[in-house]
Each structure stands twice: as structure tokens, then as C-alpha cells.
Amino acid sequence: MSLDLYAEELISNYEHPHNKGKIDNPDAEMHEYNPVCGDDITIYIKVSDNKVKEVKFEGQGCAISMGTASMLTESIKGKSLSEISAMGFKDIVELIGVDPGPARLKCATISLKALQKAVQKIKH
Question: What is the pTM of this model?
Fold first, then answer.
């Protein structure tokens, strides 16, 4: 797939996000905010048998942060908490198909950071 097609998928997820909204009575929720660029996200997660049963997000931000949040929440359904804890920047680049570079690193990883903190909350 060409870089343009990956970028198109990211933009499409920004314009038509999956899993946007709030979960009533989540097992955990975590808010992250990046004051440098204004990305603001809250992740909600429900778990059953140590696996993601439901995940949603609310927030606002740039196309990279919101598109990635949509793609990430879609990709982790059914994954174990350990799998999510082990995810890193390389997994995000693979998921979105674009390396955002150092200037947009926080934009691309803000949803993963919130998600991993929510998972830690559940584990403890």
C-alpha cells in the first residue's frame, strides 16, 4: 500500500471515527492532554476475562491524534491487557502506516498513552 493510501485511511478515521463516544460504567477511564498542540483525549474501557470487551474515546485534536485513536480502539478489541501494555511507538506506526516523525510523535501516541494508563488502573 502506498503512503498516500495510508494517509487517506488515517484521514478517513479522523473524519469518520470509529468508537467515538463514552461508555457507561467503564472498568477504567483515562484522560490525557497535550498542552503543546491541544490534543485532548479520554479513553473508556471495559474488560472481560482479561480482554478488551469494549473501548471508546472522546476528545479533540489534530487528524493524527484523532485518526490514530479511532484506528487504535478498533484494533485492540479482543486483545489481552498484557498485549496492550506491550504496545509501543513501532506498533502505532505499523497501525497507521505513517511515521509521524519527532514533531508529531506525541500526537500519534497520546491515545496509546491514555489506553495503557487505563489498563494499568485495571491491573492494580
Answer: 0.92
Tens of pLDDT along the chain (124 residues) come to 455 655 889 999 999 999 999 999 999 999 999 998 899 999 999 999 999 999 999 999 999 999 999 999 999 999 999 999 999 999 999 999 888 888 889 999 999 999 999 999 998 7
Which residues make beta-bridge pairs with 54?
46
Cα 68 to Cα 111: distance, rounded to the nearest angstrom: 7
Q: How far is the CA of 4 from the CAs of 18, 30, 97, in angstroms?
A: 21, 32, 10
Residue 40's DSSP bridge partners are: 33, 60
| DSSP annotation string for 8-69 | HHHHHHHHS-SSBS--SS-SEEEEEE-TTT--EEEEEEEEETTEEEEEEEEEE--HHHHHHH
| CATH number of the domain located at residue range(s) 3-123 in this protein | 3.90.1010.10
